[in-house]
């Protein structure tokens, strides 16, 4: 068994979408200063957190 299992499936998808949202939000924030950029950064961060939670739950099993 691998000591550091790689991300797969839904957790990976959620985290990648979170990363892309943070990057897009940061670019939008610097380019325009629009408040929607901050919301995108926060939403992306929450998506990354949700992806890690899903990954951890998959490793441990939902109790």
Span of the ends, CA to CA? 22 Å
- Gyration radius over CA: 14 Å
Mean pLDDT: 86
Structural domains: how many = 1
| Helix content class | over 70%
**Structural class by secondary-structure content:** mainly alpha
List the topology elements.
Blueprint: H1 9-32, H2 35-60
Helix pairs in contact: 1-2
Concise synopsis of the structure shown:
The protein has 63 residues and is mainly alpha-helical.
List keywords for this structure.
63 residues; mainly alpha; 2 helices; 79% helix; elongated
Structure explained in plain terms:
- The structure is a single chain.
- By secondary structure, the protein is an all-alpha fold.
- It has one domain (9-60).
- 79% of the residues lie in helices and 0% in strands.
- The chain has 2 helices and no strands.
- The protein has helices at 9-32, 35-60.
- Helix 1 (9-32) packs antiparallel against helix 2.
- The radius of gyration is 14 Å and the shape is elongated.
- The two termini are 22 Å apart.
- The mean pLDDT is 86.
